Structures are given as structure tokens and as C-alpha cells.
Amino acid sequence: MAKTVMQKNTEFLRVPGVRDIIPCALMFIGARAQLMGTFPFGLALFCACFDKSAAYLGITALYLGLLSAGAGAGAVKYMLGAMIFWLFIKLCSRAGKNLCAAVCGCALLVSGLAMTFYGTASMYDVLLLIAEAAVCAVMYIVFTNASALLSRSRRAPSQEELVSLAIAAAVIITGTSGISLPYGIEPAHIAAVLAVMAVAKNTSISASAAMGLCIGFITGAQQGSAIVMTGVFGICAAFANLLKDFGRFGVAAGFIGGGAVALLCLAQSETLMLNIWEVGIASAIFVLIPGRVHKKLGAYFEPAVSDDVNIARVKEYLSSRLEECAAAFSGLKEAFVSGTEERADRCDIMVGEMFDKVADRVCRSCGRAQRCWDMDFDKTCKGMVSLLGVIESEGVLCRENTPLQFHDRCVRSGEFISEFNHVYELEKAQLLRLGDAKRSRDLAAVQYGEISRIFKNFAKDIEEGFDFCTDAEERIISGLDAAGIIVFEVNAAQSKAGKYEIFLRLGAGYSIPVVEKVVSGVIGCEAAVVRDSSRGEVMLVSKPRFCVETGMAKRSVQAQSGDSFCTFSDGDHRFWAIISDGMGSGEAAMEESGMSVRLLREFLLAGFGAKTAINMLNSSLCLKLERESFATIDLLQIDLMTGVAEFYKIGAAGSIIYRNGETQSVYSMSPPAGMIEEVEAAGQPKRVEDGDIILMMSDGVTDAPLVRTEWIKKRIKTDCDSMDKLAAGIIDTAIEKGGGEIKDDMSVIGIKITEC
């Protein structure tokens, strides 16, 4: 069989052409194969593989093959069965494989019964007909599997497909029987030996033995020695596979060794249908076949798309992601342990409990307690509240700052003032501890919530983040085959962002430009080789649609700038730019902004979403214990595949987008990170196009001149040849417009978008 066997049934009946020569020849040969005096193989081959729009050619070839094999009048039965199946296909063109197999068997049964009852037949003939119909149905599935495997682009064949291919090949080989050469040599036996050697060299030992058994059975059944030939070919295939590491000579020697073992077991050479000449000729032909033919055949049988490879890639992917997460959490841990002093919070004092404690300590043993707390309760409470107002404003109660009427009414005023100061300080310290603990618990809850979101996103990434593209793998194999490049392995994956990664293991002599061209044509975007090893292992990735050019500049008030910034790209063709402005200037501000940029970068490279990364950073700044720690966050994400940009501004200065002479601004709508426990990290999406320029700036630039950013919008229209030049020029102009004085740290990132 060949690829031309499987043709589309697009016409009712058509004019014959050159493409029908090989299918008709195979049809003729297959019809000659017989089993116990019956010829079911030809009908099954016609039903499974032949183009039904040229059915008259197939039926003719079937009839001629049957006549040449001595079927005689019985050939009419198979012709009628072929006509019945042809009518069924024309009426039910969408029938499945199993239904077609059943119809194929039933067509032979119906036509056979018609012929049987037309003449004279015994019960044995009817039972034989039923068995033949069952064989015909099974062979339909066998031929369908084999034909589909041969006609589509090469991929990893299953054990079922290999066995089907072996049986189909054995049927075709058997169809050539009857041709004899001098010394009793039969070409059919030579072809069978060659087929067994080929599968033994290029498959596993189990597949080799299984295919050897099938070829031996079909070949032997033609001459009434099916059992013997089955065992002989199975043993020879296993021996040949064991020595395949020694190349073609090893396979041939293994087959001959297996034959010798079989001959010793049979004890007489007459039982063995093969003779020494046939095995010798087949071995010589197998050894003399060019190496490139064996390589192509080996590449075909070797799994090109392996589930084991896919599993290994998944493990590698998950392992790398978890390592990146570990690095990000390590940075977060450093942020937690960087301070040791307690953080003071202002809390409302629980007045009722404090008044009760003071009264219990001072008034319980006083003779006037009943009068003060029962008869004059309102006056006493008002007096206590006035004392509370004094201690909150003055910091401490003493005889000089308390009201005179208090001293006139309270006979233990000195003791009362002392106890009031003591209880106030105790309550204040307790409430401060409770407030700080509550704040810490709240921040920890925020952290745990974000960690929960992280792992949920990871679970989603594992399920939906990337797909293995089996269709693309098949088309890549087909394209490289057409270009003359042998493919031993291919694995193609596409990320959620649309990025392709293609791993190939190729035979010798491949061309990188040709590989890139074929792969690019398959995936629909330009692909480039990023790794090419001496062992033929090639890694390609799809190129993004957009590229970026960046320029950065900064000026500081002190020697150490309180601004920090960075730009980077991740593995999913996303570009990131970050500016963080710490509180004030100098070393402390530099530490805050530097930590913010470093943590954000680690989180984003680890695969966290922008919102999650910002929330994690905000909670870590809130937990800085030695002092208040604030930092602005200006984060830009650009998807280089789709051209969608998102701005995340947490207390940051505005940004400007320039396009074709027009500008638009993006502003912040939330306070700096570290100021409140939860920030609204909402992205502002924008579409970017070829030639767009984006300016990100700290507030030292936007607040320097009195006119704010209007001068920047004018400057960007006239000075955008180089992003480095544009960034430096904007800072110089800001200083000039600010009177030549740097009042705050200044940072600028210029980004130009171009199509790659």
C-alpha cells in the first residue's frame, strides 16, 4: 500500500487517471491472497482503501486478481460484495469505521448466501461463509489502520497500528505467491523476510515479535503451514531485534540465527518452508540497502511525539516555576526580618474600663464614695472625662493642671491623680500592643490571601497556561520530511500568551534557515532557533509581534537616589517597566524603592500577576517595623504578542503616551504602597501600536516646573529619535524649568514600540 491508496471520495464516478495505477496494482495483488481456499482480503482492501469514485476500476482489478489466483466462479461473490459496499458508502458517506467494518462483512455474507442458495451448498459451506465474512470485517479495520498510518504525516505508531501494518504487508506479500524461480526460490518469501528484518531493526522486541508472528501466519497460511511459519518468523524477529545494536549485519545475523534455532527444533528442513537461498538473498538485499533508506524508515517507526517527552517537559516547567517562587518568597522573608523595633499605632482608649480601675483602687475605701458614685454620678463622670482631656493634651496629670473644683470635691485628690496617671499608662500600653497585634494579624491575613491566590493561579496555569500542539507537531514533521530533513522527535507547546516553543531532534545534515522557515509556516508567525546542539537537538521559539527600545535617566538630590527603576522581559513575551520613589531622599528612601523594585521583579518573573505582586509588596512595606515605610509604584506591562499595555500606578506620577502627534496621559488613583493595608491595584489598559512612545516619570520631574507636564508633551513631539536622548533631555529641561535646582529625585524611562 502507498499514500496514493487513500483518496477522497469526492465524485460519484470519475474518469481514470495516472493516480489509479498503484491502487489498482495493489488491489490486484491483494485479491490474490487467500485463506483456506477463500479470498476475503481483496474485498476488505477495496472497502477500506480504494477510492470509491473509481470503484469500477477497483472492482475490475479485484475480479482479475481473483481469476489469476484460481477463484473461478467464486469471484462473482466478491464483486457483488464490493458493489453492495459501494452503494452503502454513497448513501452513508459519514459512517464510522466500526459500522463500515460490519457492513463490509455483511456485504460478503449477503452476496455469498445469494450465490450459495442459487446453487447447492452444505451447512459446512454456510459456516465457512460466516467465518469468511467475520475475517473480512476484521481485515477492513486492519487495512483502515494501516492505510491511515501510511497516508498521514508520520507520528508515533501505536502497537495496534504496527500490527495492522504487518498484517496488511503480509497480505500484499502473500498476493505475490505462485511465482517461482530456480532452486525453489519464491519472491514472496524473500519479501516476507525483508519485512521482518525491517521491523526488527526499527521497533522494540515486543513489536518485532508481534509483527513477525503476523507476517509468518499470513505467509504460511497460503501454503498450509501457518503454525510453523508463525513460530519461525516470531523467533527470527526476536533474535534479529536482540542484535540490532550491531546495525544491518547484526539484524541479518540475528534472523539467520533464529532460523537455525527453529531448524534445530523442527529437526527436519522440509518442515521449514523457507530455504537457505531465500534467507541469503533477503539478508544480502537488506545489508545492501542504502543507509539513508534505513534512517528514514527508522525515523518513521521511532516515536516522534512521545507522551513520556510531554510528561518530562511538564515536570521541567513546574520545577522551574517553583524555584522562581522560592526565590521570590526568600526576598519577602528578608523584608519581614529587616526591622526589630515595635511600630506605634494611635488607638482610642477604652474609657469605661479605665475609670472603673481608678475608682476601684482609690474610691473603694473612701468614706465619700457612695455620695460621689451614687448621688452625684453625673458630676463625677464629667469630672473624670475632664481629667482624661487634660492627660491626653498635657501627657500627665498633676496638681497644677487639674481643675480646682476637682480638688474641692475629692478628699483623696493627690492619690486619685497618681492612680489615674498609672492606669492611663497601663491601658495605653495594652491598647498599643493589641492594636499592633491586630494590625500584624490583618497584614498576615493579606499575605495568606495573596499566597492563596498565587497557588490558585498556578493551578490554572498548569491546566490552561500552555497546550501541547499535536496538530502543529504533525504538520512540522510533514514539512520537514518534504524538505528532506529527518525528524526523530518533535514537541510543540503554546503558552497562554500565544508564545510557541518547539523542540526538535533532527537527523544529520539539516539547515537552520530551512527549519526556521518550515516551523514559521506551520505556527503562523516567525520562529527563531535559540538552541542548536551537536546532537541535532534544536529549540525554536516564536518571535513577538512588537519590540521595544528603552532609554533611562535619573538625577538625585543627594549622593544616593531615592528613586529606583528597571526594565525586563519575561518568558511569555511580556515587557515590564518599573519606577519606585521612596519616601524622601537618601539612603533610607533608596532602600525602600530598591526593595520595592527588586521584589516586584522577582514576583513577576516567578509568574505572579501584577495585582498579586503589588499587594504582596504593599503588605511587606506595611510590616516594616523600624519606621513608616512608603514607596510609590509605577508599573507598566506590555504584551508584545497582542500589543495590549496595562498601567498600574500606586501613588505614582502620571505617564504620557505619544502616537502620531497626539498625546494622552495616565494618572494614579491610589496612595503609595505601605500607607494602607490594602491598595486598589487596578490596571489601566491601553492599546499600543507601531511607533508609539511611552514616558514614565517620578514626581520629581512632573512637579518640578509650574506648568506640570504640558512642556513634556511638547518636547516628546520633537525629540524622539533616541530613547536615551529623550529621557536625559526631559530631566535636563525639568531642572532648567525648576530654576536650575534639583528639589527632588528625578527618574525617566522612555519606551518606543516598533513592529519586529
Q: Could you please describe the fold and organization of this structure?
A:
The chain has about 750 residues and is an alpha+beta fold. Helices cover about 55% and strands about 15% of the residues. The protein is built from 26 helices and 15 strands. The strands form 3 sheets. A 5-stranded antiparallel β-sheet has the order 1-2-3-5-4. A 5-stranded antiparallel β-sheet has the order 6-15-14-11-12. Strands 7-8-9-10-13 form a 5-stranded antiparallel β-sheet, covered by helices on one side. Strand 4 (about 525-530) and strand 5 form a beta hairpin. Helix 2 (about 40-50) runs parallel beside helix 6 and helix 4 (about 75-90) runs antiparallel to helix 5 (about 95-120). It is elongated. The two termini are about 45 Å apart.
- Give average pLDDT, whole number: 77
User: How much of the polypeptide forms β-strand, as a percent range?
Assistant: 5-15%
**Separation of termini?**
47 Å
| Major beta-sheet overview | 5 strands, antiparallel
Percent of residues in helical segments? 55-70%
Question: Number of DSSP strands?
Answer: 15
Q: Helix/strand-derived class?
A: alpha+beta
The number of helical segments is 26
Give the uncertain stretches in residue-range form. 1-10, 336-349
Write down the Rg. 43 Å
The dominant shape is elongated
Strand order of the largest sheet: 1-2-3-5-4
TL;DR?
By secondary structure, this protein is an alpha+beta fold. 56% of the residues lie in helices and 13% in strands. It has 26 helices and 15 strands.
